[in-house]
Design goal:
The structure holds 2 protein chains of 2 kinds.
Chain A: H1 8-27, H2 30-44, H3 51-76, H4 84-103, H5 110-138, H6 143-162, H7 172-180, E1 182-183, E2 186-187, H8 188-206, H9 208-218, H10 220-225, H11 230-256, H12 267-278, H13 289-308, H14 313-339
Antiparallel strand pairs in A: 1-2
Helix pairs in contact in A: 2-13, 3-8, 3-11, 3-12, 3-13, 4-5, 4-6, 4-11, 5-6, 5-11, 7-11, 8-9, 9-11, 12-13, 12-14
Chain B: H1 2-9, H2 13-26, H3 28-39, H4 42-56, H5 63-88, H6 96-117, H7 122-149, H8 155-174, H9 184-191, E1 194-195, E2 198-199, H10 200-218, H11 220-230, H12 232-237, H13 242-268, H14 279-289, H15 301-320, H16 325-351
Classes of the chains: A mainly alpha, B mainly alpha.
Chain lengths: 340, 352
């Protein structure tokens, strides 16, 4: 240390850079960027720094964070799910149709109708995921093709079932229960998000299924040789992914009060973006719950902030595209540094 | 089985010859199956579908309808050929639909703007409009290529981002409203004109397909593309100019998507940000049905053209027998998964 003291002024630059680089490689750049963005938007628009807005951000971020978690299950196995957005549309239409037809003129059984149609939503999600999973891991078809095909199939179902029109007339109780109510003082969507995150954390870290996913992503041959039923677990990842997507769909129709053939919109891009920006690797085997939280918060703060400073929604789309590419680039750069 | 027959083959030459002759004679059906496997089932499927649709619905065989199928197929063929080049090099392009939309919007706005100020110089206006559209579309391709080749970002994410960007620009400049006011001559000359009884688009498509076939099979660049796709590392070590080739390929793909955008704009008669929303899915489907591998290094332009023809025939047939257009996306999705699934089965059958 003392020997280096006289070189300090010259060495400080590179050394500081190395420390920063080290921190970044360890934790990622994202937490810093998040804080900077939060402060920055607040300086431009003082309304950004209110308690209501903070709650609003967390509430908004819940949906995309849950979706990123769903996507992460599949990303861990070196796959991805392109069908997320149209599957959301399909489930929203199906659920809304079941709910409205069950309620009909009989207003007494609303709670039952809601419960049954949510179960149906989850079942449809699981079934969709099962089709994806079987095609990918038992028939060996590339996940890209399978989920792209499923995107078309789900879109077809969504528009055919609904004839292209929203299915409205959902009971107010649904909106009350899953959107406006507080669960133990926490807004419902946020509470659901926390439950999903906790469950995901447990599954990924403390079950055979979770550990196998990391193994499949890290080295598929090793997973096969190690004797884990890797095909089954791989397929199960798709089932879990689509089931979580169904949960988000229930939250979304509770918010909008109707099932819509275009409810999913750009959520597929956003879910992959959030997961990858957060630090889930596209090459599999790398990703934690906290990554999804960071990624979800980032995408949400970016979009709310841009809304507050009145950026046109189409321009926002352009910016999101740039940010996604930049995030993946930084992630790969980080990986290369990690390997050195 | 394989293990037990191996020693027999290692006997002296005469026995081996007899063995082989017997195998040849006794397994004619098997050989037929082998030929089938090597060529793919696509040509047979096409003929079967052609006959079946015609028997079910007479109007399918009418000349007017067949022209229609061919014309719709030609748009898809051009864009699928571009997609195929990117797939062969081991990449991916999700942005082609957005590129076509951006091209359409740019060309239409340029033409409409110039036409209003100088209505007599129609040829110049059309030319500038088309060039502007092609330039805008191709620029996205250059961007894709540079990001993939130089920054080495995953092509899937790059083109997904590019898709978002191109659609964003197209919708922002038009606010989603169709752009009218192009010269009549452009729509009549390009979109609806006929030469010797055939739509002009078909001649253009054949020209483009032949050019790509020549490019891939008879030029250094073409050989490089296959080399990079089958083994990028080996290609790099043997001195293939990797970066230049990848950029050129993404650029070519976007250029072809832009050409499709121009042709569709001429056909529709307006510039639309919503143009051909499903064409990305369709062109990847056409390429994969045509036997292009997602792992790179494999693909023939003539088979991809057949794949596009197949998809267009399915769509046209479904229209004729009045299957709802919304249901058709389901059918295309199923066909896509089935085609690639069968391809996988074919591969594993060939290996055993």
């Amino acid at each position: 240390m003392t020997a280096n003291a006289d070189h300090a002024p010259a060495a400080r630059g590179p050394q500081a850079r190395r420390i920063l680089l080290g921190l970044w490689i360890g934790y990622g750049l994202l937490p810093t960027v998040l804080v900077l963005m939060y402060v920055g938007f607040g300086l431009v628009e003082p309304r950004f720094h209110t308690v209501e807005n903070a709650v609003n951000i967390l509430r908004q971020a819940s949906y995309i964070t849950i979706l990123a978690t769903a996507q992460m299950f599949v990303l861990l196995t070196r796959g991805f799910d392109l069908s997320v957005s149209t599957v959301i549309s399909m489930i929203s239409i199906a659920t809304a149709l079941i709910m409205t037809s069950m309620i009909g003129e009989d207003q007494s059984s609303i709670a039952l109708a809601i419960a049954v149609s949510i179960l149906f939503a989850l079942a449809i999600g699981a079934a969709t995921g099962a089709v994806n999973g079987v095609c990918v891991s038992f028939l060996g078809v590339n996940p890209f093709v399978v989920t792209l095909g499923m995107e078309g199939i789900a879109l077809g179902f969504a528009t055919t079932l609904s004839d292209g029109f929203p299915v409205s007339g959902l009971p107010g109780a649904l909106n009350m229960a899953f959107d406006r109510s507080l669960w133990l003082g926490v807004p419902a969507p946020l509470a659901v998000c926390l439950i999903v995150l906790a469950a995901t954390y447990f599954v990924l870290n403390h079950t055979v299924f979770g550990r196998t996913l990391y193994l499949i992503g890290g080295n598929p041959r090793a997973a096969f040789v190690a004797g884990r039923a890797s095909r089954f677990h791989n397929a199960l990842a798709y089932v879990v992914c689509s089931t979580i997507v169904a949960i988000v769909t229930v939250l979304l129709i509770a918010r909008t009060g109707s099932g819509e053939p275009n409810l999913g919109g750009g959520l597929m891009l956003e879910s992959i973006a959030a997961a990858v920006i957060g630090g889930v690797s596209l090459r599999g085997g790398e990703g934690r719950v906290i990554h999804c939280v960071f990624g979800g918060l980032f995408v949400t703060i970016l979009s709310i902030g841009m809304n507050l400073v009145r950026v046109d929604s189409y321009i926002q789309q352009i910016i999101l595209g740039v940010v996604v590419v930049a995030a993946v680039y930084l992630d790969q750069f980080r990986n290369r540094k990690l390997r050195q | 089985m394989g293990n037990r027959t191996a020693p027999v083959r290692s006997l002296e030459a005469g026995t081996v010859e007899r063995e082989m002759n017997r195998a040849l004679i006794s397994s004619a059906p098997r050989r037929a199956a082998e030929i089938l496997l090597s060529q793919g089932v696509l040509p047979i499927l096409l003929v079967g579908l052609f006959v079946a649709f015609g028997l079910y619905e007479e109007r399918f065989w009418k000349a007017a309808n067949l022209f229609n199928v061919l014309r719709n197929a030609s748009y898809l063929m051009i864009i699928s050929a571009g997609q195929m080049m990117v797939l062969i090099i081991g990449g991916f392009d999700l942005s082609v639909g957005a590129v076509a939309a951006l091209t359409s919007v740019t060309a239409a706005m340029t033409m409409a703007g110039l036409y209003a100020s100088m209505p007599e110089a129609i040829a110049v206006v059309t030319l500038i409009g088309v060039l502007a559209g092609l330039a805008a579309g191709t620029a996205i391709g250059v961007l894709n290529g540079v990001t993939v080749a130089v920054l080495r970002v995953n092509p899937f994410m790059v083109t997904l981002g590019a898709m978002s960007i191109a659609y964003g620009i197209a919708f922002y400049t038009t606010t989603g409203v169709p752009v009218y006011g192009m010269p009549e001559e452009f729509t009549r000359g390009f979109g609806r004109a006929r030469w010797i009884g055939l739509p002009v688009t078909i001649f253009l498509t054949v020209g483009i397909l032949v050019a790509i076939w020549w490019l891939l099979n008879w030029t250094k660049y073409g050989r490089y593309v296959y080399a990079i796709g089958s083994n990028q590392h080996a290609a790099r070590v043997s001195g293939v100019p990797l970066v230049r080739c990848i950029i050129a390929t993404y650029t070519a793909c976007a250029f072809l998507a832009a050409v499709t955008g121009i042709l569709l704009t001429a056909r529709v008669g307006s510039g639309e940000a919503n143009l051909a929303r499903t064409i990305t899915l369709e062109c990847i489907a056409a390429a994969l049905i045509g036997g292009v591998s997602l792992r790179g290094g494999v693909g023939k332009v003539q088979l991809v053209a057949l794949g596009a023809l197949f998809l267009s025939m399915v769509t046209n047939g479904m229209n004729l027998v009045r299957i709802d257009s919304k249901l058709q996306t389901i059918v295309i999705g199923v066909v896509l998964i089935l085609a690639v699934g069968l391809d996988r089965l074919k591969l594993s059958a060939a290996r055993t």
